[in-house]
Amino acid sequence: MAHLLTGIRFVLAVPLSVAYARPGFLHVGLVAVLLTAAIFTDLLDGAVARRQGTASPRGQLFDHVTDCLFVAACLGGAALSGRVTAALPVLVVLAFAQYVVDSYWLHREKHLRMSAVGRWNGIGYFVPLVVLAAAPLEVIPHQAAVLTPLAGITAWVLVGSTVVSIIDRATAARRGSG
After folding, report:
1. What tens digit of pLDDT does each residue of 24-65 get?
2. What are the structural domain ranges in the chain?
3. Is the pTM of this model over 0.85?
4. Does domain 2-175 fall into CATH 1.20.120?
5. Cα separations in angstroms, 47 against 5, 21, 44, 109
6. Contact of 25 with 75, CB cutoff 8 Å
7. Terminus-to-terminus CA distance in the chain, angstroms?
């Protein structure tokens, strides 16, 4: 069941990344519903795996790979439409690759070695996507005029925190905390 939840997020990456690249491709309400579904599958898959006793390093890797692909694709779509910087999806992929290499090859672990900064970044990568999905809903008049630039600003903050995370992970071994 946990893999099914993760798989749903994997599948949702395609229509949502196109929707971020081409606003109007999907109805704004559908974008919000699909993004909400993706977030809920991310919140639930690990808990379901632990509850069912099926949690494993491979399942964790599947979850994290799916998260990386999902946010990188959706942020890439938003970058193509000019609403976030293209640096962010590139850095997401680089930070994830570093995470995997650091965990499995440098430290010879049999599971991913998480960091606090990386965890918060992983959560933060969803923020510009949520803001961009909410912007056109027009719950209040002209909210898109405020929320769309806010998503761009948030993306730049995440660029900074991702660079910090990459540097932190790269220097952790020298500091004796890796």
Report:
1. 999 999 999 999 999 999 999 989 999 999 988 888 889 999
2. 2-175
3. yes
4. yes
5. 11, 32, 5, 22
6. no
7. 33
